[in-house]
UniProtKB/TrEMBL annotation:
Organism: Pontibacter arcticus
Keywords recorded for this protein, A-Z: Hydrolase, Magnesium, Metal-binding
UniProt cross-references to InterPro entries, sorted A to Z: NDP_pyrophosphatase, NUDIX_hydrolase-like_dom_sf, NUDIX_hydrolase_dom
A Pfam cross-reference name: NUDIX
Protein family: Belongs to the Nudix hydrolase family. NudK subfamily.
Record protein name field: GDP-mannose pyrophosphatase
One Gene Ontology term from the biological process aspect of the record: nucleoside phosphate metabolic process
Subunit composition and interactions: Homodimer.
A molecular-function term among this protein's GO annotations: ADP-sugar diphosphatase activity
Span of the annotated motif Nudix box: 71-92
Transmembrane segments: none
Nudix hydrolase domain sequence ranges: 34-167
Length: 180
């Protein structure tokens, strides 16, 4: 399979492209959603023995969602981006950062690649809550590991991070019923 041509059909907050793809001599069209790459981290506050998450309204899901800290990668530097996002969203400076995994969220239609980290923090330095100019209204939520295991998860990057944490702690997550 080979991409022959790309045409930007919309360029706003996100970008949509029409692709002309060739396979076995046949050409066909596909659409591509380009939201940029993301850096994300499951954050552990070592001073309080709590995991820190963010909760915010997500218009595509039409609901408040509990998520790990994340943001769009700036200047091709996911590590610098996640350190900045942790400070903006929950108000902490990072003491330790460990790279976990990189993955594509939906490679059939979306270009987004997520760079996933585990971060340790210990001292709050700022208010957090996101940036007003980005229209972020973020609530910080804190959980013990036991409480975290019982939380309903709907966000893929958060599910992957929590599953990683459970495996690291030799634990099995409960599977609360998912409702739409």
């Amino acid at each position: 399979m080979k991409i022959k041509r790309k045409e930007t059909i919309y360029n706003g907050f996100y970008t949509f492209r029409k692709l002309i793809v060739e396979e076995n001599g046949e050409e066909f069209e596909r659409e591509q959603f380009d939201s940029g790459s993301a850096a994300a981290a499951i954050v552990y506050d070592t001073s309080r023995d709590l995991y820190l998450f963010v909760q915010q309204y997500r218009y595509s899901a039409q609901m408040e969602m509990l998520e790990i800290v994340a943001g769009v990668v700036e200047k091709d530097d996911p590590e610098k981006t996640i350190r900045k996002e942790i400070k903006e969203e929950i108000g902490y400076a990072v003491d330790k950062l460990e790279h976990i995994w990189d993955f594509y969220t939906s490679p059939g239609a979306c270009t987004e690649k997520v760079y996933l980290y585990y971060a340790e923090v210990s001292q709050k330095q700022e208010e957090g809550g996101g940036l007003e100019e980005h229209h972020e209204h973020i609530k910080v939520k804190a959980f013990t590991f036991e409480e975290l295991q019982k939380q309903k998860q709907f966000d893929a990057k958060t599910i992957i991070a929590v599953q990683w944490l459970a495996a690291r702690n030799n634990a099995t997550l409960e599977n609360p019923e998912v409702t739409s």
